[in-house]
Here is the input.
Amino acid sequence: MNIVVTLKDGKTFEINSGATPLDIAKQISEALSRMAVCARVNGELVDLNMQITKNCSLEILTLRDPEGLEVLRHTAAHVLANAVKNIYPTVKLGMGPAIKNGFYYDFDFDTPISQEDFVKIEAQMQAIIKADFPIVRKKMTKKSALAKMKGFNETYKVELIGDLKDSNISFYEQGNFIELCAGPHLTSTGKLKHFKLTSLAGAYWRGSEKNKMLTRIYGTAFEKKNELDEYLMKIEEAKKRDHNKLGRELKYFMTEEKIGQGLPLLMPKGATLFNTLVRFVEDEEAKRGYQLTKTPFMAKSDLYKLSGHWNLYKDGMFVIGNEDEDDEVLALRPMTCPFQYMIYKNGLKSYRDLPVRYNETSTLFRNESSGEMHGLIRVRQFTLSEGHIICTPEQLEEEFKKSLDLTYYMLDCLGFSKDVWFRFSKRDPQNKDKYVGSDEAWEKAEGLMKKILDDIGLKYVEAIGDAAFYGPKLDIQMENVFGKEDTIITIQVDMFLSSTFDMTFVDQDGSKKNPYIIHRSSIGCYERTMALLIEKYAGALPFWMAPEQVRILSLTDRNIEYVNQIAERLKNEGYRTDVDVRGEKIGFKIREAQLEKIPYMLIVGDKDEDMKVVSVRCRKNGDIGQVSLDEFLSKIKKEARP
Here is the structure.
């Protein structure tokens, strides 16, 4: 019997019933320019060897397609698990998905392994690839699947199967190895060519600190060797720029086990950069009509119960006291919103008083899990350039645009404007318990925000389920050097909490109404911003934000007094200046300053002192030559502001 297949470009194909996507792929020249890896049949991803038995739409996916590359890497994760099981028969298998830029697999080893073990694991993977085992999809009843995994003593697989609702469970078999998986996969292990295991980490089973810590092996795979080599070179460059390494080496921050995870100590350089950014942000916000507030680091649980955080966010808070035992239970604040709302409520407001724009450099506390914390990017205590705009409904769009304009300005000044993208985060309608407000109110809020974004002409992606519990938001996303995506700045529309907090204004008709609220950050979390700055500039920060902008080096002890005179002048002009008058050779001092990424060095010897000049050396361009101090000040003045 012949059946009709409609291809992506609209062409139709007549084939015998029982043919596979691979049979068709072999007849489509454009699909053969790169290896076909899977297919999409009636919108569903399937293996290439799945038989087609009825009319359908068909798309052949190759390694040009993101889904195709994901299939290659998912197969690599299975080959990794197969290899590890061959070498360590008693290991228990966790999960192994494809991820951006690669894959990982979680294992429960009897004894710890190290990256030195990667050599034998990769050799075993190569043997599996060379054997070119067919990868075959198998179906089992849930009862049979549970029995099989219990027989293999795969306790984690048993747990996963127990959570599945399907009565038929799919597995993939290659040689003597069988793995629980929904697929799809390559048709055989030999199709995997170029891979590399890259790192080792600890990971809690299913991401919960309540579960056992497993060993996670990361790797990557590509179609071509040159693509793999290029990626590995990028990883090596990323390691050099990693703020968690470079920030410590340059003495921006440190951590101390006795203090705790996620609680970094900013050293003098880091504290100076931090304060420079804070002053810059607060000055700019003041120019744009913001009023600075300073509110407590903690509050009674009553405040958080009113805001909704106690019911929806309590697990992420640090609570002081026990509700069953203490009259007064406090919690460190995870946000500043309700504190500023109370300031707004102090006195009757008219529509003429709106918009009110509050800003605060807010120290916040969130109980991040230990597995999530990383350097300055994810911490338990952090500082946010937080702000809330309280406005009339008619003012909302204009105020949102102004908030976005401020964000654009900040991103441009930091050098991030070409590195970010935008995400419109919406409520998950299938999980309404996570949010406050009615369906109608959420539809109105999301519709209003979509209109604003579309009116602006902003390009964005939508993310279902990533909204704040009180409203939709615009998330500004950026990757660190390893490709890990994080939200760095948010602008949120809130139509709910002003009513909860009984925040009102007297409108033109004399009636009391609830205002709208925009929650926004202008530069995001200062610690995370500092981390991304260190990575972007590889520690060589732009002059205006560099913790030490100028270092003056003496050639001999005779020049120390002149060096100190120059330093005093520069400091009086507002430049962050230090001196190096040690009795070391000048070459040693220059190399040290260069390694510390100091933007400018002024080298002073007898001739310079006699002529009342300085010899200028630039971090980027090397020796510039002798100039008067006034000329040098004129030059750096242009670089002193972003």
Remarks:
- The domain at 548-637 is CATH 3.40.50.800 (Rossmann fold).
- The mean pLDDT is 91.
